[in-house]
Amino acid sequence: MLQSIKDGLQKLPASEKWYPFVEKYVLDDKLTLSATLFIIIVVFGGLISLALSGRHSSTDSGSPTDNTFASSSPDSTSPTSSPDNFSEPNATPLPSASVSPSPSTTPSPTPSPSPNGQLDAGHSTFSANPSSLAADGTTSSVVTITLRDNNNNPLSGLAVSLTTSDNRAVFNPTATGSNVTDLSGHATFTMTSTNAGNDNINVTATTSSGTSQTFTNFGSVTFTAVSSPTPTVSPSATP
User: DSSP strand E in the chain: where?
Assistant: First the structure.
């Protein structure tokens, strides 16, 4: 029996701290059988106690209340529990959405005012006040010329001159510069004559660039003859 125990002890790992003692006293036959059995009981009792202590420690380490439990630790870096390290081998990556810049808005050009059309006799007017007066050379008629284009828009800045067919009437601007059409297209003159008759008036309008246009017989004014006073004959003296 003692030989069987010795054979069993020889199979134990030599790294155990009690092995030199067993090797010195038990395997070399320096102790009695009873002493050898006592030592063996003590050694194996210690081994059993250590085994139970280790089992108890491993059981406690898996307790749900243990803050060092690996699966519940917030500091765990396991690739299977970290959402940041999750990857599916066969997953097709989604294309990144490209944000196209919003198209730039080109401001619409500010419309420029349409230029005035051509001077038009049909939309232009002539007026004389009065239209009939004495041909005494002092009584005058105020003649107003209004010039417009073919869209009935007034034409300003046109120099106006008036003439008659026999060139016997006299025209003068009513004021300095009144012979040039204003923003309403008006030009005004005074007209006098010493010749009785109906005077047809020609209107010539000239632009700042020198281009002119004439409306012949655009209006008329009537001058009436002035009667001469009858001479008074004084009665001759009676002798």
Answer: 119-129, 132-134, 141-149, 159-164, 170-173, 186-192, 197-206, 212-224
DSSP 49-79: HHHHHHHHHHHHHT-TT-TT-GGG-TT---T
The residue among 144, 140, 147 whose CA lies nearest residue 170 is 140
Contacts 24+ apart (CB under 8 A), 32-36: 33/1, 33/2, 36/2, 36/5
3-state secondary structure of 104: coil
Tokens for 203?
Answer: 């209107």
For 220-232, write each residue's pLDDT tens digit: 999 999 987 666 6
The one-letter amino acid code at 237 reads A
CB 178 within 8 A of CB 188: yes
Place of tokens 């025209």: 171
The most confident of the ranges 25-29, 49-53, 182-186 is 182-186
Burial class (CB in 10 A: 0-12, 13-18, 19+), 144: middle
Phi–psi pair at 5, nearest 5 degrees? -65, -40
Ramachandran class of 195: left when φ > 0, alpha when ψ lies in -120 to 50, beta otherwise? beta
List, for residues 127-174, the tens digit of each pLDDT value. 999 999 999 999 999 999 999 999 999 999 999 999 998 888 999 999
Place of tokens 């417009």: 148
